[in-house]
Specification:
Largest sheet: none
Structural class: mainly alpha
Order of helices and strands: HHH
Shape: elongated
Number of strands: 0
Radius of gyration: 33 Å
Number of domains: 3
Distance between the termini: 113 Å
């Protein structure tokens, strides 16, 4: 006898989601092709070439673009912060805190010494 497999609601939702994503992609490609066919121009317009941004914003966008397009000698973007640096940063904060505590103790010791010297003079 033939068995009919049941499709769960979760699978139906996943199938519908995939269909929606595919349809949106097709619509986007269709719009792009229609615009190229009708206009005969490139659809790629750099936001920096538009007149809708003031010069200050254009310069900020240019610096941001340059930052994201700069890589170190290993090919890693400069804006990328590796996880190992977070541990190093925590160690540095700990060292700075201990230095600060040491300086505070030194200040208190110097104050006590100055008080003793002033008491001896009197």
């Amino acid at each position: 006898m033939n068995e009919v497999s049941q499709i769960s609601p979760l699978e139906v939702g996943g199938i519908i989601g995939v269909c929606i994503v595919l349809a949106q992609g097709l619509i986007g490609i269709t719009k792009l092709l229609i615009n190229k066919r009708l206009n005969g121009k490139k659809d790629d317009v750099s936001p920096l070439s538009c007149n809708r941004f003031p010069n200050e914003q254009k310069e900020q966008l240019r610096r941001l673009y340059d930052l994201h397009c700069t890589f170190d000698e290993d090919g890693v973007p400069l804006w990328f912060v590796p996880r190992s640096s977070l541990a190093n940063q925590a160690k540095m904060v700990e060292i700075l805190n201990s230095l600060s505590t040491g300086q505070e103790n030194l200040v208190h010791a110097v104050e006590k010494l100055t008080e003793k010297i002033e008491n001896i003079k009197d």
